[in-house]
Design a protein that fits this description.
The structure is a single chain. This protein has one domain: Up-down Bundle (Growth Hormone, Chain: A). Helix 1 runs antiparallel to helix 3, helix 1 packs across helix 6 and helix 11 runs antiparallel to helix 12. It is built from 15 helices and no strands. The two termini are about 20 Å apart. The longest helix is centred in the middle third of the chain and has 31 residues. It has about 425 residues and is mainly alpha-helical. InterPro entries: Efflux_drug-R_Bcr/CmlA, MFS, MFS_dom, MFS_trans_sf, Sugar_transporter_CS. It is a multi-pass membrane protein. It is found in: Cell membrane. This is Bcr/CflA family efflux MFS transporter.
């Protein structure tokens, strides 16, 4: 990338429209690897439960393991990419993902499946972290908002599209085939990096003054009140979404009687809510000048109302529609929050973009992975346990938003 730029200019400003489109597509593929790795096999949960002879909580732990591995992987890959550049960590981590996918496809029991799922999550971590860091390397100000909104769309859409695709794959293959597909996806990522991605972090920027060590970069981030608060709010937003993802396979297939394809169709409908939320949110920020912190104020308020509505309607016996309608509203609100969180977290941290992206992702997936299995412990025979976890996540997010982030104190984004 060009090294000499006028003040206030960024390398991405010099890219042509076609070049930007290539970056959006390739970085979108990288970003989607993690969510697809986590969620593609969700429709197979009841099948796995029957084949391995274990309870729903044990199957959900394989999801938790993937998310925890994903979170830990980001904590390592992000700072590593700030030190050595973006491409090498991405390639090596994705090769681990491919190997773990093969292991999961051949797993003889639930224990080995859980082990390989942790490694799979660890290997998939590089895609999202490096993609966000590359965008921050290239862009700033309102262009950063626009580019991050594209990644946020993929990041929000992939978790709800993955089960749709997974349900269709189960028509032509067993659950092991899904892991072979994930291994092939990892191979595509490696090829895309080798042929389409150039290094966006010049060697001269890898040891910036005051940020030469991992400790220095973490110190900068943890001393930024807005970053810390937004990371927690984003993690609670993700936790609410994953409370749904981890329980929905049992809830809709076993309680409401959906087959795998109907379950996939439900996810397709919910994906429209994510798309709408991300697009409207990014337009409000980039064209209307609405501060991302105020987007989050609206998100937490709507999510609280939607989650409480699920509980009330479920307890009054309203049935399927009493769950799916407020659930759609909740998921759409998650989409509203994704780009706002990313913009607030990365806007002021170009010098440590990889580390910032890794912390953001680690908190998203790590906390969601730890908290969402509570749904399984509470039970999956009704929608109320899922909604209780959602309410808890929103309460924490709301408190942190107003006491730590403090929306009125957040400065406006630069042009």
């Amino acid at each position: 990338m060009p090294g000499d730029l006028a003040p206030g200019r960024h390398p991405g400003d010099l890219l042509s429209r076609r070049q930007r489109l290539v970056y959006i597509i390739v970085l979108g593929v990288l970003t989607a690897l993690g969510p697809f790795t986590i969620d593609l096999y969700l429709p197979a949960f009841p099948v796995l439960q029957g084949e391995f002879g274990v309870g729903a909580a044990a199957i959900q732990l394989t999801l938790t393991g993937t998310m925890v591995g994903f979170g830990l992987g980001q904590l390592i890959v992000g700072p590593w990419s700030d030190k050595v550049g973006r491409r090498l960590p991405l390639i090596l981590a994705t090769l681990l993902h491919i190997a773990a996918s093969v292991g999961a496809a051949l797993a003889p029991d639930i224990t080995w499946l859980a082990v390989f799922r942790v490694l799979q999550g660890f290997g998939a971590a590089a895609g999202g972290v490096v993609a966000m860091a590359m965008v921050r390397d290239l862009f700033g100000g309102k262009p950063l908002v626009r580019m991050l909104s594209r990644l946020a769309l993929v990041n929000g859409l992939a978790p709800v599209l993955a089960p749709v695709i997974g349900s269709q794959l189960l028509l032509v293959m067993d659950w092991r085939g899904i892991f072979w597909v994930l291994g092939a996806y990892g191979a595509i990522v490696v090829a895309a990096v080798l042929f389409f991605i150039v290094e966006t972090l010049p060697a001269s920027h890898r040891h910036a003054a005051g940020h030469s060590t991992v400790r220095d970069r973490y110190r900068v981030l943890f001393h930024d009140r807005v970053f810390v608060g937004v990371a927690i709010v984003g993690a609670m937003n993700f936790t609410g979404l994953f409370a749904y993802l981890s329980s929905s396979s049992f809830l809709f297939q076993e309680v409401y009687g959906f087959d795998a394809q109907q379950y996939g169709l439900l996810f397709a409908v919910n994906s429209l809510g994510v798309v709408a939320g991300v697009q409207i949110s990014s337009r409000l920020m980039s064209r209307r000048g609405v501060g991302p912190q105020w987007i989050l104020v609206g998100v937490t308020s709507i999510q609280m109302l939607a989650a409480i509505a699920i509980i009330v309607l479920d307890q009054t016996g309203t049935g399927l529609w009493g769950t799916v309608i407020p659930l759609w509203v909740f998921i759409a609100s998650c989409g509203f929050g994704f780009p706002a969180v990313q913009v607030l977290a990365l806007a002021n941290h170009g010098a440590e973009a990889g580390t910032a992206a890794s912390l953001l992702g680690a908190m998203n997936f790590g906390l969601a992975g730890i908290i969402s299995p509570i749904v399984g412990l509470l039970g999956v025979a009704a929608a109320t346990p899922m909604a209780i976890v959602m309410v808890g996540a929103v309460v924490i997010g709301t408190v942190v938003l107003w006491t730590v982030v403090r929306p009125r104190t957040v400065p406006a984004l630069p042009e």
